[in-house]
């Protein structure tokens, strides 16, 4: 079983309920193709580095997946025809970093520690 990190960027006008539907849709595709979702993160609406299909922002969804290569092929084939998505990216990794949340806001306790220094 290979380890993958897979990120999807949905259009900026996608509602939170549609984001949830997109997450469930691609989770089901992964599970149908003998994959296992280790973690799903919703990074929210972030600025894009450049315009993509006239969008300045995109809603990011990130999956950490265990599975075989044919599962990724099936996943990307479905994403290529989805009009709600701007981009997708799959990266094969050696191990997952499950502790760090790279796009979450800092806790109040962390802010207090930084100001006391």
Secondary structure elements and pairings:
Layout: E1 2-11, H1 16-32, E2 36-52, E3 55-67, H2 69-80, E4 85-93, H3 108-116
Antiparallel strand pairs: 1-3, 1-4, 2-3
What does this structure look like?
With 117 residues, the chain is of the alpha+beta class. The chain has a single domain (2-93), classed as 2-Layer Sandwich (Alpha-Beta Plaits), CATH 3.30.70.60. 32% of the residues lie in helices and 42% in strands. It contains three helices and four strands. Strands 2-3-1-4 form a four-stranded antiparallel beta sheet, with helices on one face. The longest helix has 17 residues, at 16-32.
CATH topology term: Alpha-Beta Plaits
Q: Please state roughly what percent of the residues sit in beta strands, choosing from under 5%, 5-15%, 15-25%, 25-35%, 35-45% or over 45%.
A: 35-45%
Distance between the termini: 45 Å
Number-wise, the strands total 4
Adjacency order of strands in the biggest sheet: 2-3-1-4
The CATH C-level name is Alpha Beta
* Total domain count: 1
Count the DSSP helices: 3
Q: Order of SSEs, N→C?
A: EHEEHEH
For the report, how would you describe the main beta sheet? 4 strands, antiparallel
**CATH superfamily membership:** Ribosomal protein S6/Translation elongation factor EF1B
What Rg do the Cα atoms give?
Answer: 16 Å
The residue-averaged pLDDT reads 85
SSE-based structural type: alpha+beta
Q: Unreliable runs, pLDDT <50, ≥5 residues?
A: none
Q: Percent of residues in helical segments?
A: 25-40%
Name of the CATH architecture: 2-Layer Sandwich
